[in-house]
Design a protein that fits this description.
N-(1-d-carboxylethyl)-l-norvaline Dehydrogenase, domain 2, 19 strands, 3 domains, eight-stranded mixed β-sheet, Rossmann fold, binds 3-hydroxybutanoyl-coenzyme A, 47% helix, 26 helices, 13% strand, 648 residues, alpha/beta, 2-enoyl-CoA Hydratase, Chain A, domain 1, six-stranded mixed β-sheet
Length: 648
């Protein structure tokens, strides 16, 4: 029974019990429909508490049903019935009330939320809009500009904020059910949310300013614009008409390419490390983490661990470097405090759990040590030799290398089976992806521990085999190579960047390289020159820019030229350099349309992705999509390069 009814005096307690997240499936809709019948028909029931079992209130409609023909009762009809009930329904919310779950709560007559609850309408993140009255009921509970932000960004809010803006009536600090019961016993006649007036905006012009911002940020994704349209309908039409229009828009979006692609990524992200080899393998307990290296990556990794409640000891080569690393970590935590992501108490707790040292001995009790030293095999091997001498035999050791052979790092150590790669992306405390690089011979428990760490840090783990660049950087190299070929063949950096940004990437590749500094990759290319395949086409334009002292934004020139405010502009000097290089190579430059640019880059990514699969570096093509979406801003709503390849 996914929905059951219990009685406590004159209050009926309707409980949804549909693990794991109480999604409103067809069975739940049927159960709730019957619950309305039962409670309306029972003269001894004077009020209803709607509550959920398990870890959360309803987290939305059941996404797995979206590919199937809808079955009655439909959620909008069910919610109208609950709203029209003659007995008051009190929604008791814990965990997350999301999408159809929040819509269900809004159709109830009163809402009480547990202090830790989160409430939101994340449908846009699935390429949808709320489809069961969310765009019509929410602006009747909260100011219309706040409703706009919630619906078109999908970002959930906490219980206190929800109460402040009118979304919930009270916040429960004690036992949720008991508090909801008290409300049920005292609440008056039910007032339908739809009968309320729309709430005014928080300030004149706030709604239209919000619309402008949302449309500017959509970068080609449809759902935010459709959400705006649905809210405009809520303003322009009576509730009933606005509901009908919302439903039509929802159904159209549900069958859109965008929604299919976003559903693909939703499920792909949740299945990355479902691996047979990990069945029944327990991770080792992880509480104390060591980080070797206090540079940008080391500090970011340390901060990510601290922010997730782990203790961290950082080791640097001398006390000055240790102090500098300490300062970097503190700066990240200070910034989190300033942005309100960390309370002052949590900030103090995290700083107290952190130490920086100039001695490897400080890592003697670590459960896991992550090396984030200079990207050079010899340097890394020396670090692991030091670690071998001090860490416990059962401790897990990881390298944050972004392209080196983790097997070669592990080879000469005392316990190679405990060494893996944990490739974080900068900034490490923010980026969601964690590539877990498994060399031959890695112990399953070490792999399970890497996966467990990713989950503790709130990151998405993707398993990669050992190869130059692993999954993410290898595909990005293919993108970069193809973009550079096009430079020589006739395109200019800003044209390629614009095509890719219009496609949905947050930033074009050349702009990104200018930002990172061209000298870093130049140094790497120089180091790799001796082992480069002489038969492979090599584009020198980046090297030529560096030889001219143009390292990107930090020197005011790179692929672009930068003004005093740091804004990028097309650089005639770069254009001349590129054209001269094409001439030097005997290449007749030709025009590229934006579509041909995106097609060529996409094909290059797909080709590399196929190779990565054929070589067994990635386990599944979905993992490549998840990697590209979360590491390099591949537009999520397109589903990823391999998804596009399979769906064409
Ligand atoms: N439908 C079906 N399955 C769902 C689901 C949903 N709405 N939400 C989560 N699940 C499944 C996941 O696929 C996963 O399954 P698995 O164990 O087989 O991999 C399981 O529930 C647990 O999910 P998570 O691993 O994501 O668990 P977390 O604890 O990390 O997160 C959550 C929980 C915050 C609820 C997160 O799952 C989430 O954000 N879910 C989606 C919420 C959402 O987008 N709701 C809107 C749906 S659209 C809608 O409601 C339309 C309406 O307007 C008509």
């Amino acid at each position: 029974m996914v929905v059951r009814i219990d009685r406590d005096g004159c209050v009926a307690i309707v409980t949804i019990d549909n693990p794991p997240v109480n999604a409103v499936s067809h069975q739940v809709r049927l159960g709730l429909w019957e619950a309305v019948d039962a409670t309306e028909g029972d003269p001894d029931v004077s009020a209803v508490v709607l509550i959920c079992s398990g870890r959360t209130f309803v987290a939305g409609a059941d996404i797995r049903e979206f590919g199937q023909p809808p079955k009655e009762p439909h959620l909008p009809d069910l919610l109208l019935r609950i709203e029209a009930a003659t007995k008051p329904w009190v929604a008791a919310i814990h965990g997350t009330a999301l999408g159809g779950g929040l819509e269900l709560a809004m159709a109830c007559h009163t809402r009480i939320a547990d202090a830790g609850a989160k409430l939101g309408l994340p449908e846009v993140t699935l390429g949808l809009i709320p489809g069961a009255g969310g765009t019509v009921r929410l602006p009747r509970l909260v100011a219309i500009d706040l409703a706009l932000v919630m619906i078109s960004t999908g970002t959930p809010i906490g219980a206190d904020r929800a109460q402040e803006i009118g979304l919930v009536d009270s916040v429960s600090t004690g036992d949720l059910l008991s508090n909801a019961m008290l409300i049920a016993l005292s609440v008056g006649a039910p007032q339908p949310t739809l009968a309320r007036e729309l709430r005014a905006e928080t300030a004149p012009g706030a709604f239209s300013a919000g619309v402008e911002k949302i449309l500017a940020r959509a970068r080609g994704q449809l759902a935010p614009a459709v959400a705006v349209q649905a809210l405009q309908n809520a303003i322009d039409f009576p509730a009933e008409e606005a509901l009908a229009r919302e439903r039509a828009l929802f159904l159209k979006m549900r069958d859109s390419e965008e929604a299919k692609a976003l559903r693909h990524i939703f499920f792909a992200e949740r299945s990355t490390v479902r691996l047979d080899r990990l069945n029944g393998i327990a991770p080792l307990p992880l509480a104390q983490v060591g980080v070797v290296g206090g540079g940008t990556m080391g500090a970011g990794i340390a901060a990510a661990c601290l922010l997730s409640g782990l203790s961290v000891t950082m080791v640097e080569r001398d006390s000055n470097a240790a102090q500098a690393g300490h300062n970097r970590v503190r700066a990240i935590l200070d910034d989190s405090l300033k942005r309100g992501k960390l309370t002052p108490a949590a900030h103090s707790k995290d700083m107290a759990a952190f130490a920086a040292s100039d001695s490897y001995e400080a890592l003697a009790s670590a459960d896991l040590v992550i090396e984030a030293a200079f990207e050079d095999l010899g340097v890394k091997q020396a670090v692991f030799a030091q670690l071998d001498k001090v860490v416990r035999p059962e401790a897990i050791l990881a390298s944050n290398t972004s392209y080196l052979d983790v097997g070669a790092i592990a080879r000469d150590t005392a316990h190679p089976g405990r060494i893996l790669g944990l490739h974080f992306f900068a900034p490490a405390h923010i980026m969601k992806l964690l590539e877990i690089v498994a060399p031959q011979g890695l112990d399953d428990s070490a792999l399970a521990s890497g996966v467990a760490l990713a989950k503790m840090l709130g990151k998405i783990p993707v398993l990669s085999g050992v190869c130059d660049g692993f999954i993410a950087n290898r595909i990005m190299s293919a993108y970069r190579r193809e973009a550079e070929y096009m430079l020589e063949d006739g395109a200019l950096p800003w044209q390629i960047d614009k095509a890719m940004e219009d496609y949905g990437f947050p930033m074009g590749l050349f702009r990104m390289q200018d930002l990172a500094g061209l000298d870093i990759s130049w140094a790497m290319r120089k180091r790799q020159a001796a082992i480069r395949d002489p038969n492979q086409r090599y584009v020198r334009i980046g090297d030529l820019l560096c030889e001219a002292g143009h390292f990107g934004r930090k020197t005011g020139r790179g692929y672009y030229v930068y003004d005093d405010q740091g804004r990028a502009h097309p650089s005639p000097e770069t254009a001349a350099l590129i054209e001269a290089e094409s001439a030097q190579r005997g290449i007749a430059r030709r025009n590229f349309s934006d579509a041909s640019i995106t097609d060529r880059i996409l094909e290059a990514m797909q080709l590399e992705g196929r190779r990565i699969l054929d070589e067994g570096i990635a386990q599944r093509s979905d993992d490549i999509d998840v990697t590209m979406v979360n590491a390099f801003g591949f537009p999520r709503w397109k589903g990823g390069p391999m998804y596009l390849l399979a769906s064409n």
